[in-house]
Amino acid sequence: MAKEPHWIYWKKTFRSKFQAGCVKAKLEDNWHNGYEIGPFVEIKKLKTNKYVVRYTYDEM
């Protein structure tokens, strides 16, 4: 049985998916050539038609 990942949410919501995508790219680039395994990052659309970025270090 797989356990649920522990999500960490970015502190801000975004009006466009493009803005959220920029933060997603920045998070992923921080680990691009690092020694650690990078986080799994995704963009979620909220009911208010805004977007939020969340990430996890748990292996999926």
Please describe what this structure looks like.
- This protein has 60 residues and is an alpha+beta fold.
- It has one domain.
- It contains 1 helix and 3 strands, in the order E-H-E-E.
- The chain has a 3-stranded antiparallel β-sheet with strand order 1-3-2, with helices on one face.
- Strand 2 (40-45) and strand 3 form a beta hairpin.
- The longest helix is centred in the middle third of the chain and has 13 residues, at 17-29.
- The model has no long low-confidence stretch (mean pLDDT 84).
Summarize the structure.
With 60 residues, the protein is of the alpha+beta class.
Inertia-based shape: flat
**Rg to the nearest angstrom?**
12 Å
Count of the domains:
1
- Strand tally, please? 3
Q: How many strands, which pairing sense, and closed or not: the largest β-sheet? A: 3 strands, antiparallel
Low-confidence runs (pLDDT<50, min 5 residues)? none
Strand fraction: 25-35%
- What is the average of the pLDDT values? 84
Helix-strand sequence? EHEE
Strand line-up in the sheet with most strands: 1-3-2
Find the structural class using helix and strand composition: alpha+beta
Give the termini distance in whole angstroms.
Answer: 12 Å
Secondary structure elements and their pairing?
Elements: E1 8-14, H1 17-29, E2 40-45, E3 51-56
Features of the shown structure:
60 residues, 3 strands, alpha+beta
